[in-house]
Amino acid sequence: MIVLDTHAWIWFVSSPAYLSETAKGIIDAAVTERNVFISAISTWEVAILVSRGRLELTMSVGDWVAASEAIPFLNFVPVSNSIALKSVELPGALHNDPADRIIIATAVSMGAILVTKDEKIRNYPYVKTVW
């Protein structure tokens, strides 16, 4: 079971060449078992990136998200109260980016591996990551 960080989701759907070989392999394995999860906060992040001109999509954000939702092996995880609380209660030193904290809390809550290139997250010892 894996959770994709926002950039891993974007690259997986739109630009797989940006994924590392290790990330591609673990995603491919999870796809066969339909165990690929994405936090709903990543939808918010994608919309923010597009609205600020930091990400260009070939379609509207709504259509892009809907196309992702239609992929049968992608599962979106809502930001539940327990995940929101866990994001605030994560142990140890971690930067304060709320979206990253929610994505980490999602992976930890699910006992999942987080697929991320983000060095800050990969150096956080309380979540299992791969890149």
What does it look like?
The structure is a single chain. The chain has seven helices and five strands; from the N terminus they run E-H-H-E-H-H-E-H-H-E-H-E. The model has no long low-confidence stretch (mean pLDDT 97). It is of the alpha/beta class and 131 residues long. Helix 5 packs across helix 6. The longest helix is centred in the C-terminal third of the chain and has 13 residues, at 98-110. 51% of the residues lie in helices and 12% in strands. Strands 3-2-1-4-5 form a five-stranded parallel beta sheet. The protein has one domain: 3-Layer(aba) Sandwich (Rossmann fold), CATH 3.40.50.1010.
Provide key terms for this protein:
about 130 residues; alpha/beta; Rossmann fold; 5-stranded parallel beta sheet; about 50% helix; globular
Quick take:
The chain contains seven helices and five strands. By secondary structure, it is of the alpha/beta class.
CATH homology superfamily: 5'-nuclease
- Shape by Cα distribution: globular
* Cross-sheet strand order for the largest sheet: 3-2-1-4-5
Count of beta strands: 5
> Oligomeric state of the chains?
single chain
SSE class: alpha/beta
| Unreliable residue stretches | none
| Main sheet summary | 5 strands, parallel
CA-based gyration radius: 14 Å
What is the CATH architecture descriptor? 3-Layer(aba) Sandwich
Distance between the termini: 15 Å
Under CATH at level 1, the class stands as Alpha Beta
Strand content is 5-15%
**DSSP helix fraction:** 40-55%
Instruction: Give the integer mean of the pLDDT values.
Output: 97
CATH topology title = Rossmann fold
